[in-house]
Amino acid sequence: PLLNIPSVRGAKVFVVPGNHDLDCDASNPITWEGIKERNQQIFFCENEEGRKVRKPRSDVFRYYWDFVQRNKIVGPNPFEEISILCQEATFPFDIIAVNTSFFCDKDEKSDDPITPCPLGSLRERLKGFERNRPLIILGHHPMNCFLKTQQLQFESLLVDNNAVYLHGHEHEPKVSHNADGTVRTLGFGAVYLAPLSVSAHAPYRNSFTRCRVTDRLFLNGHSWDYHVGRWEDATRSQFSSCIKQNSYDGKSVVLGI
């Protein structure tokens, strides 16, 4: 339905898998401790060794990847890579899309800090990477879901590379800031997919956020209103926790990057 909206039609869509995009029955679950230190060192590497150690697990993404290819969406191929770097000449920023979901399983409590952070892949993409414009990293899991021993490392990576991390998974939008007030992380909330003819209540509503980037980040939230049968602007309600003095211009939430 999103691609039928005039302002979205024809847009280049980026996607990364979340914990609900896996076919958990396609492979035995894995844990960071269970794969042992030898495999931990190479699991997130963007080389043949990394692909080899991930191969037994990659099949959980088969249906997800079929959907991505069928709809001509841009994202990392779980059978080949952990992340991709996209430098679009027409964009005012660079994008890294990263898969954080290899270790997800339906029997795990996904909000716990049990998710390994793909630091190896991100560092490899950023190695020798010269930038003169903002960097946005797209992932699914928020920072507090990463292993506790890796959260500070990931935060350092964001700060050192002047990067903004945009993620999902949360049921309500959340934002964290750098010392200068610019955005460090921004979670848009989990997407609840249901037929548009089905009644749903917040936060489990069909929703999406439209972002516009200049020297600042402009956010507009939209939710499907079942009763009136249209997409309605929900910016103030979706991002109420982000709205502070001078951060709302009457139409959009405005954040520094």
What does this protein structure show overall?
The chain is of the alpha/beta class and about 260 residues long. It is built from 6 helices and 10 strands; from the N terminus they run αααββαβαββββββαβ.
Order of helices and strands: HHHEEHEHEEEEEEHE
Query: How do the strands line up in the largest sheet?
Result: 1-2-3-4-6-5
Q: What is the gyration radius calculated from CA atoms? A: 18 Å
**Average pLDDT:** 88
First and last CA, distance? 30 Å
Low-pLDDT regions: none
Summarize the structure.
The protein is α/β, with parallel strands linked by helices. The protein contains six helices and ten strands, in the order αααββαβαββββββαβ.
Question: Topology, pairings included?
Answer:
Layout: H1 36-40, H2 48-58, H3 62-70, E1 83-86, E2 94-98, H4 119-126, E3 135-138, H5 148-160, E4 163-167, E5 174-177, E6 183-187, E7 207-213, E8 216-225, E9 230-233, H6 235-238, E10 253-256
Parallel strand pairs: 2-3, 3-4, 4-6
Antiparallel strand pairs: 1-2, 5-6, 7-8, 8-9, 8-10
Q: Keywords, please?
A:
single chain, 257 residues, alpha/beta, six-stranded mixed β-sheet, four-stranded antiparallel β-sheet, 6 helices, 19% helix
